[in-house]
Amino acid sequence: MRLTSIILFSVASFALLACSSKEPHYSRTLGLYDPDQLGLSDLRIDFDSGREELFACLSEIEEDVDNVPPMKSDVSSQIASRLRNAADLLYEVYDANPDTTLADSALFLGGVSLLWADERDDAYEFFEILLDNFEDNQRGFHATELDDDGSTTFNRLIEIVYLYGKWHIENDMDGNLFADGDIGVDALERIVKLVPGGVWSDDALLLIAIFHRYHGDYADAIDAIDRLRSKHTDSDLLPEALYLRARSALDISKGVRYDPKLFTDAISFSEEYYNKFRKNPVLRDLTTKIDEVYAEAHLNLAKKELRTARFYLSRERYRSALMSANNILQNFRSAGEDISAEAEEIKKECEEAIAEIEAEETK
Questions:
Q1: Which residues span the domain enclosing 178?
Q2: Which helix (H) or strand (E) holds 221?
Q3: Among 31, 88, 241, 327, which is most buried by a count of CB atoms within 10 Å?
Q4: Does residue 291 belong to any structural domain of this protein?
Q5: What is the CATH number of the domain that holds 213?
Q6: Counted domains in the chain
Q7: Same domain, 124 and 152
Q8: Using CA of residue 128, residue 130, residue 136, residue 138, what is the dihedral sign?
Q9: Does the global pTM surpass 0.85?
């Protein structure tokens, strides 16, 4: 995190100066900055100064503090510098007395300042502290300077963290070298952990699944989708989740030799989709994709059963071969004429062989 301001106070006034350093260094008329010696009145001055600078910058670019900041800002370098200075001031407030209601507000506004300054990753460090506090203490979010009970600020924090994770994932998949999808997944997983049934959690889980599928990690994608289905049974993302669940089962089967369970899973989730969403005209394109998954899984199961029938026939285990052939003819005729025709031939050969065997046994 880049915390870079030097604050000089005189008896009558104060001015803001900027410097570059990994750690904040503060010089005052009373000596070097020491959180233990800094009074709450000084913290209030710093908080008000940082907040007013943020508000002033937003006013100049005609934005409102209630608006969620973009993950890609195009403010001028001068405005960006002022926003970074505001963030430094606000971090100082948190660092000096982290267990106050003022600290929550300072961290949140400091993160917002950095987002508007186009410093996504630095901003996320501010927001991570807030998430850590909430997760470690399992407490309600502090009532802050921004609202009465903290819930509004917390909800906006969750939305911002979601957008941050989304930015990294989508830009990683688009080949942006400045994005890291793994960072995005970690951010989204924090949302899911903190508010598993929250309004952004289903979006987060679907994005996680899409990212894992993009990298061929189908088992991880399936895990994310199963969590979405478990916690968000009424989500409007469920149709796409079911499609991706069925598609992932089919895709993972390509690396597993003849595992019928994966094909069965693909068919099962396709049928769940059909039962719930097939008649929805809005989902016509998605239904077409599900049809393709269902047909491919159905065909693979039919081929697997045909291989089984051939195997038993080659070993002269006619009754087992006949059972597999009948299964194809009863349940997989839609798999294709060639498969059905071969199953008919195997059935005929097995029935003739069984008849001969039984005739010999009765002599």
A1: 147-235
A2: helix 218-231
A3: 88
A4: no
A5: 1.25.40
A6: 2
A7: no
A8: negative
A9: no
